[in-house]
Amino acid sequence: MSKSSACRLVLFLLVIGISVSSSAQQLRIITAGSALTETVCALGDCDKIIASDRTSLYPAEIQKLPSIGYRTGISAEGILGLKPTLIIAEKDYVDEAVLQQLAGSGVKLVIVDRKFTVDDTRKFIQQIATALHREAEGKKLIAKIEGELAEAKAMLKRATAVPKAVCIYNRGTATVSVAGTNTFGEILSYAGAVSAVKDVEGYKPLNTEALIAANPDYLVMIDAGLQSIGGVEGMLTVPGVAQTTAGKKKQIVSLDSLMLTNFGPRFGEAVKALVVLLHPELQPK
Fold first, then answer.
1. What number of CA atoms fall less than 13 Å from residue 86's CA on the CB side?
2. Could you tell me if 211 and 240 are in contact, meaning their C-beta atoms sit under 8 angstroms apart?
3. CA distances from 155 to 6, 149, 218, 237 (A)
4. Does position 14 have pLDDT exceeding 70, yes or no?
5. Cβ(166)–Cβ(178) below 8 Å
6. What Pfam families does the entry give (predicted)?
7. Would you tell me which of 46, 63, 170, 209 could form a disulfide with 41, CB atoms 3.0–4.6 Å apart?
């Protein structure tokens, strides 16, 4: 190769390197959906997020970023005005009309149709990892979750009972709902428990008679919800709760809100923590 050809090759490689580096630095991500935000961060691109929605509270640094709003308050104009290069949005969280506007904008759009199963957790982590060119990190993250679930399964071999539980979502006393199928209530089966309520899909208002009839051994809540109602003692004042085994024994437990409900990067951690809460015999002596 001649000296001039070698110089041109070096210059070409330098240009490519600068272009790739510049492209990576210019990645501007907007996320809509807390599980998706957490996943982007877990994969190593938290610093590329320029804005997110109001539910994205973890990791804490996300709370310092501009907010695009909440559910019906999220608009295509508000997102595109921030000049993102990549938008990652949850299908059932953002209005379909908004998603269609974003799809027609020319900005890369990843729509995640999230469901509450570990298989779907794997699926959307892989989907986001591919969009970010973080496939290796995605595999490591999935392996971490699977390892934690395996640990939880091993712990459950020493469990002496299969408790009945009801998952509760609330904001103070104004909204107290039972979390049924297709909600974070699906976590119970991974934690060696069964749902005490049947034929409840989605979130339904807590019914006093139905709760007493179900007679759960445990109530599972999010930390913020339990705190907003006055803790365990406050929950005991909700009609019907004191008449259940969970109420009589004060077996009302809670976990970090997003860790419990997201079925995301911390799903394995949530399952392990819930296993211990629902099976006191497994707690360290």
1. 21
2. yes
3. 62, 10, 19, 34
4. no
5. yes
6. Peripla_BP_2 (PF01497)
7. 46
